[in-house]
Structure of Threonylcarbamoyl-AMP synthase:
Amino acid sequence: MAEIIDTRTDPEAALSRAEEVLSEGRPVAIPTETVYGLAADATNPDAISHIYEMKGRPRFNPLICHVSDVAMAEEHVAFDPLSRRLAEAFWPGPLTLILPLKTTSKVHPLASAGLDTLGVRMPDGFSRKVIARFGRPLAAPSANTSGKISPTTAAHVEADLGEKLLLILDDGPSQIGLESTILKVEGDAIRLLRPGGLDVADVERLTGTTVERPSTAGATIEAPGMLASHYAPGASVRLNATSVVGGEALIRFGGMTINGEENAAVVLDLSPSGNLREAAAHLFDYMKRADASGAATIAFGPIPKEGLGEAILDRIERAAAPRDGGLV
Ligand code: TXA
Ligand code: MG
């Protein structure tokens, strides 16, 4: 069973134990502001292999490397001026940039899945301290079995991977609750590879550039992990429900009551006041709770596709996708 250290009461023990486990080439579950990550030394192929094995993740799906400052990022990737501006504006924070790998980088090709680019992010919160202490980038996917819902609490991680892990750092619920927004700059264009915790509108406001969505950019899926079913709860998922069939679990938004909800196995409101940030922070936990109710189907009420609603709906649509075939 994993050892769990509370970073709020015992920050020094958390840092020194994490450094120890990471140095042994073993993964540590770390709290980030987006979701909990399964972190390991990005320069050590054995350590990275542990990540893929623990998650049951296909090795062609590259990992994001997490850095504690821009100088650490610059050892491994080359910044174009626009990417640098984005990093300066939004790091530390829920933004991953896809950048060309430097040939001198010591990040192991297992982490980048052999690509000539690397996903890089400077996370906020305690995880950044862990990276600074360790002194090297940490490769970290979300700390869940591949294809399952990402964890936003230490308890989520423990329930899924606790048997396989040595150490989980508990820093309370992730504040954002959705994975990072992934962007790739190409010339003057900024392409969205995954909607996430950074609102694309903030990027457009800063740069004066319209971010290209996959649908407007020729519909090629470029983040290999974005294919098919993902974020799958045990129950099946129904979108845009205007009524509830008895026994279904209902997850709604903005205090909007749904016909027949009195017959639902459980009713959860992502944000009764209609705040999309609050809804994002609750999404994965509520999906897990709805699943735990034993209902065969989770019905989602309508959610506006604006601001973080875009990323929230992306995750729900993936949860609703057919489970067979594709990447899990
Ligand atoms: O918020 C987050 O991003 C969390 C926390 C732990 O930082 N991490 C996370 O990692 O969500 P993961 O492995 O679950 O998702 C990483 C995504 C995958 O879809 C992967 O295919 C894509 O990033 N990715 C990584 N490197 C890439 C690259 N060089 N080019 C394109 N996509 C890449
Ligand atoms: Mg993930």
In short: The pocket of threonylcarbamoyladenylate (ligand 1) is lined by residues 32, 34-35, 37, 61-64, 96, 98, 112, 115, 117-119, 121, 123, 140-142, 179-180, 182, 193-194, 222-226 (CB under 6 Å). The chain has two domains: 3-170, 236-320. Residues 276-292 form the longest helix (17 residues). The CA atoms of residues 61 and 141 lie 10 Å apart.
